[in-house]
Design brief:
Blueprint (H helix, E strand, L loop, with lengths): L22 E3 L7 H17 L2 E5 L5 H15 L3 H5 L11 E3 L5 E2 L2 E2 L3 E5 L29 H28 L8 H4 L4 E9 L9 E6 L5 E6 L5 E5 L2 E4 L7 E5 L1 H6 L9 E4 L7 E9 L13 H4 L17 H12 L1 H7 L10
Parallel strand pairs: 1-2
Antiparallel strand pairs: 2-12, 3-6, 4-5, 6-7, 7-14, 8-13, 9-12, 9-14, 10-11, 10-13
The chain binds 2-oxoglutaric acid and fe (ii) ion (FE2).
């Protein structure tokens, strides 16, 4: 079967196509050898069939989830000038606030406002020989009127990084690899990208694209959504709703795992549809990626898995790069043309088409 570049979902021949998002309980990973094996098999199937799952039993207390959601609400409730004072267009590191309609996916505006935070690291010295992705590293911007945000989001970043790495180690086992096979490409400086997001209701937007169809670029995304639906995942017969499950994370596979597994796992395409008039939707996304200076290895899969690997998707509109920094920067430049023009205008990638 010829793979179509945009409809990249393909079910393994042996199993029926999934029509809903599976639910996995992480406590089974530490519940003895038999439970562990069963969990790893389910993890592998969920990640391969649909590429998305609801994670429960993850160990992050409900109170911490509620707290980070409340903080995000407080940020979005700040007066617009306070949010504009930390606008992303001021940051070569793609950190800060983006107003609804300013971010672009598949050439169209996304009707969501958002605030992006990364790891707090020093700016890297720049020379003529520095790779462009080295400009991504640097400080965050923080609103002066909400000092709790810095404390709360950096604490959240540490907690979800730990959870993400635990899951990544489980994925390594599920792919027949040593548990720490990915450590050499994330240790020391994993890419830790938080995005708090508010999708205004239809009365306040000029369309229904909350965020357009896309793949995430990292290893894994761990996302908390509130009670408002809208997240949809590409399935074999159309879009599957990822309905909210209280206390859970929505987890999905990013391009790095697709590349490393030679397409055995797929970074599933997903989107968010704008909420109905009078409602809004809040989500807190965390994208766990590798170090910018790393190269994604091609894992030697066991023969039974290797025979089912489909190769990474070849979408001319979204080439996947094994060089981590290059792959990540690709997505950032495309989503934020204003930042691209201001700080990356010297790159061929940002030249007007
Ligand atoms: O808000 C959501 O539920 C999904 C967000 C998303 O897919 C993204 O920001 O990459
Ligand atoms: Fe996404």
């Amino acid at each position: 079967m010829a793979a179509s570049p945009l409809v990249s979902w393909a079910a393994p021949e042996s199993s029926a196509p999934a029509a809903s998002i599976p639910r996995l309980d992480l406590r089974r990973l530490d519940a003895g050898p038999a439970e562990r094996e069963a969990f790893l098999a389910e993890l592998r199937d969920a990640a391969r069939d649909v590429g998305f799952f609801h994670l429960v039993g993850h160990g992050i207390p409900a109170a911490e989830i509620t707290q980070v959601q409340a903080l995000a609400r407080r940020f979005f409730a700040l007066p617009l000038p306070e949010k504009q004072a930390v606008a992303m267009v001021r940051s070569p590191h793609f950190r800060g606030y983006t107003a609804a309609g300013r971010e672009i996916t598949r050439g169209a505006p996304d009707w969501r406002e958002q605030f992006d935070v990364g790891a707090e690291r020093e700016v890297l010295p720049q020379t003529a020989a520095s790779p462009p992705w080295s400009r991504l590293q640097g400080p965050n911007q923080w609103p002066v009127g909400l000092p709790d945000l810095r404390v709360g989001l950096l604490r959240w970043q540490a907690a979800v990084t730990q959870l993400g790495i635990r899951l990544l180690r489980a994925f390594a086992l599920a792919l027949g690899q040593p548990e720490d096979v990915f450590a050499p490409i994330y240790q020391g400086a994993p890419n830790q990208h938080i995005k708090i997001i508010r999708y205004p209701g239809r009365e306040a937007t000029q369309g229904e694209q909350g965020v357009g169809a896309h793949k995430d670029s990292g290893f894994l995304t761990l996302l908390v959504q509130d009670g408002q639906s809208g997240l949809e995942v590409e399935g074999p017969n159309g879009w599957i709703a990822a309905e909210p499950v209280e206390g859970s994370f929505v987890v999905n596979i990013g391009e790095l795992l697709e590349l490393a597994s030679n397409g055995y796992l797929r970074a599933t395409i997903h989107r968010v549809v704008t909420p109905p008039a009078g409602r809004d939707r809040l989500s807190v996304a965390f994208f766990l990626g590798a170090r910018h200076d790393a190269t994604v290895p091609l894992l030697a899969l066991p023969p039974d898995l290797a025979s089912e690997a489909r190769g990474p998707a070849s979408d001319p509109d979204n080439p996947l790069f094994h060089e981590v920094g290059r792959n990540y920067l690709k997505g950032r430049l495309r989503s934020h043309p204003d930042v691209a023009a201001r700080f990356y205008g010297d790159l061929a990638e940002t030249a007007p088409a």
